[in-house]
Write a structure and sequence with these properties.
The protein contains 11 helices and no strands. By secondary structure, it is mostly helical. The protein has one domain (2-245). Helix 3 runs parallel beside helix 7, helix 7 packs antiparallel against helix 10 and helix 7 runs parallel beside helix 11.
């Protein structure tokens, strides 16, 4: 029991260290907030009356970019500096170090998206708001996207490679996951791809928690898919990282 407590403390302090060192910097905050808002504003100009329907997608996009903004490069960056290996000298497992890294990204993604949600309350009224479902969706989605960022970070050797790979995942997702365009309006062949993307289920959960929804996918299915996605990517990340460390 004592060993588990020590591991959890180590995970917490690694996450806290990353939050203080990397996340609350102007470039990182702007990437997590300004880019999603800019994209949303472009669609607002096209259809001002439908802005409230865009809020779930905006929150999902903020989660994706906030949670992966530094998470996708932080492990690669620290391995280049040699500071990541020094973390492994502490009495904590490799999985614990990886979990701490993911915790930092997940917290930042959650905070960014929650801030945008609070601002949206000044402009829109969500009559079907389900607070428990909303918070659960934000937390699970932020963990899923931070885990994706962690996997990207351990899969490459250079920071620029991590940034390129992260964008290769992120940009197609924002156009194929129902952020701006309903998945049902996409061609059937494209819909198949959409249902393979984690952002699809994050947006569906957020839409169910804020607006009336007739989605054929039960929110428990979306929860299960995001949890499975996070678990599988975490295991894969740990294995890849262990091999790279020798």
């Amino acid at each position: 029991m004592t060993g588990i407590v020590k591991e959890l403390k180590a995970i917490y302090f690694i996450g806290l260290k990353d939050i203080k060192s990397y996340y609350f910097k102007p470039p990182n905050i702007s990437w997590g907030i300004l880019f999603p808002l800019t994209m949303a504003f472009a669609f607002y100009l096209r259809n001002p009356g439908g802005m409230i329907d865009l809020i779930p997608g905006l929150l999902g996009m903020s989660l994706l970019f906030g949670a992966t903004s530094m998470e996708a490069v932080v492990i690669t960056f620290e391995r280049r500096l040699g500071s990541f290996e020094r973390l492994l000298l502490a009495p904590v497992s490799l999985e614990g170090v990886l979990a701490g890294k993911i915790l930092g990204g997940a917290f930042f993604g959650f905070l960014i998206s929650f801030a945008i949600f609070v601002v949206s309350l000044f402009f829109f009224s969500f009559s079907d708001l389900n607070a428990f479902l909303l918070f659960s969706s934000l937390i699970l989605s932020s963990i899923a996207f931070s885990t994706l960022g962690g996997f990207i970070s351990v899969a490459v050797k250079e920071v620029f490679e991590a940034q390129t790979l992260a964008n290769l995942f992120r940009f197609p997702m924002i156009f194929l996951s129902g952020v701006f365009i309903p998945i049902e309006s996409l061609p059937n062949s494209v819909q198949i791809v959409s249902y393979l993307l984690p952002l699809t289920y994050s947006v569906k959960l957020l839409r169910n928690s804020l607006l009336p929804s007739n989605s054929a996918i039960n929110y428990w299915v979306s929860f299960l898919i995001l949890a499975t996605f996070s678990s599988v990517l975490f295991v894969m990340s740990a294995r890849v990282l262990r091999k790279r460390l020798g």
